[in-house]
Write a structure and sequence with these properties.
By secondary structure, the protein is mostly helical. The chain has helices at residues 8-47, 64-86, 90-109, 115-135.
């Protein structure tokens, strides 16, 4: 009588796939969250310039309404790419890394206007980049 029991090696590929799928879901949800928060930040910048405190001697000086539009557009794109990630699209994985990178740059440049929030958004975007870059690899 022969019993067929899966070996330890047979579980490894499915566990790796589940781990990669979990990271992709994490990246999708986090990118959509970053996008929604960036949309709100953009609306604040467009509607009320005096919500943000401007630093006098900062190297990068921008109009806060322009920053509002920048964050609004990046946020909308981030939400759309997050939805694409939820569907498992390859274009969304690549676009997600690019958009998260642009969100990092935009938040770095807006550090003097809203420092704590910018650092939080940079951290979230860093997690998105990490999850998208790590989640797609197959290590066999």
């Amino acid at each position: 009588m022969t019993a067929t029991h899966p070996t330890h090696g047979a579980h490894a590929p499915s566990a790796k796939r589940e781990w990669a799928g979990g990271l992709t879901v994490f990246a999708a949800v986090t990118l959509m969250l970053v996008g929604v928060l960036d949309i709100f930040r953009g609306i604040m910048g467009i509607a009320e310039d005096d919500v943000f405190v401007a630093t006098q001697n900062y190297v990068f000086k921008f109009d806060l309404t322009a920053w509002g539009w920048t964050h609004l557009v990046l946020g909308a794109i981030a939400v759309l790419v997050g939805l694409g990630l939820g569907r498992g699209a390859l274009w969304a994985r690549v676009s997600g890394v690019v958009i998260a990178g642009l969100v990092v740059i935009a938040n770095f440049l807006s550090l003097p206007y809203y420092p704590v929030w910018s650092v939080v958004m940079i951290a979230f975007s860093g997690f998105v980049i990490w999850a998208l870059c790590l989640g797609g690899r197959s290590r066999t």
